[in-house]
Amino acid sequence: GAYQEPFRPQFHFSPTRGWMNDPNGLVYQDGVYHLFYQYYPDATVWGPMHWGHAVSEDLVHWQHRPIALFPDENGLIFSGSAVVDKNNTSGFGKEGKIPLVAIYTYHSIQGEKTGRNDFQTQGIAFSLDNGETWTKYEGNPVIGNPGVRDFRDPKVFWHEDTQSWIMALVVGDHVRFYRSINLKEWQHLSDFGKGQGAQGGVWECPDLFPLQVEGTDETKWVLIISIGSGGPNGGSGTQYFVGDFDGTTFTPNHEEYKWLDWGTDNYAGVTYNNVPNNDRIFIGWMSNWQYAVLTPTSTWRSAMTLPRKLSLKKFGDDHMVVNYPVEAVFELLAKGQTQDMVLKAAETKEFMHDGLNRSEISFTTETRDFSLALTNDKGEHLNVIFDAASDLVIVDRTRSGLTGFQQEFGNKLHYMDVKQLPKGLYEVTLLVDAGSVELFVNRGQFVMTQQIFPTRPYTKLLIGNTSNSQMELKGFSISNVASIWD
Ligand code: FRU
């Protein structure tokens, strides 16, 4: 059947064919979660961008829909967001139908070719049938280009306090905020970011949203910014700032920027608008511009991360954005037998298991010196190493399967700094699909997402206690994960 090709994700979203990058227009309306995405249907490499489209009722099972937005005379359709215009501020609503409005970047190839700098502008389009068909606004572009090369990726949300739409837009090395009352006319409010945070590449795909600090009644604002290069383990990465937003200006706390994910393959991620119960749900593109166009898949390229619920927690004096898969992901598990076990110092235990490439592996422990290895009968292996002395978690995919398609993919170890992991019991969860592994430590306090391309399924899990005392594992299980495409 469909979706059976080598490396085809079984419980992550991927397009049927063609090229995909950033998630776009993440919005919930009338029981439907929309996932639009940067899409080039005619090849498996980046090309003239469209918005592809899929819908879901649970964020896990997806149904493909026709392409939503095609390039037009203003340019290609780059990344952006979508809002439910409940009060019909745009006037696009007709006969009581609430418009869904997409706000995206136009990238004019002609403009770029003639050596101009002003080829990126912002446009809008609306749908009156919950995302099935779209009409572009005749007054596009709604924000012209002030003469800067990188001017894109509008994230718009409704700001209750000022009863207006706020847009975060990236401009090279910083983010710019705008306000509108009708989604058509935009007023520049303020800028944030020059000289701040990670600047290893241009800023892309901003997102700004409030989160309640867990266990308090305090609300903080989180600003997510992707960077094309200079990520924690090379290439693309996603940083965030925690601070305050007063309707005009974003003011960061006096704490450092942090990485949302330490793995190599979580980029351009943003969150949903309009989710019931105010849940803040994030999806990222599970790739890296370093090698995205070279990964060894056949008819399609790239998948999305699992949908993750974001929350804000204090660890010591620091606020950290915690990201952990939404409940519906765990409903895909055929929960394996749970066991408690003890490993003596230096002991290794082996578990044979068919289908580790579609599994969830989970346990809690206090030990910070151990290793996990997933291997197959060809000796390919993926290793995860917890090292207490350095306070690091290390992912080694150098011999995980196919790696030679690009030099950077498999030539180094990936590090995650877990200094702020509190003492005591913590959970370790690995979600392994045909082309990826997502590691969640302490229920998403620390996360590493990476692609892998084992040529045969992994069939053996090794857990090695590398500490000099015994290691207790509680609630250890290996669970099979149902395919979302069956
Ligand atoms: C991020 C990005 C965006 C841009 C889009 C183009 O991956 O470079 O900044 O809008 O991809 O496809």
Automatic annotation (TrEMBL):
Boundaries of every Glycosyl hydrolase family 32 C-terminal domain copy: 360-465
Family as reported in the entry's similarity comment: Belongs to the glycosyl hydrolase 32 family.
PROSITE patterns, per the entry: GLYCOSYL_HYDROL_F32 (PS00609)
GO CC annotations on file: cytoplasm
Hydrolase among keywords: yes
Keywords recorded for this protein, A-Z: Glycosidase, Hydrolase
GO biological process, one term: sucrose catabolic process
PANTHER family named among the record's database cross-references: EXOINULINASE INUD (AFU_ORTHOLOGUE AFUA_5G00480)
Record-annotated Glycosyl hydrolase family 32 N-terminal domain positions: 12-319
Organism: Flagellimonas lutaonensis
Species classification: Bacteria, Pseudomonadati, Bacteroidota, Flavobacteriia, Flavobacteriales
Record-given protein name: Fructan beta-fructosidase
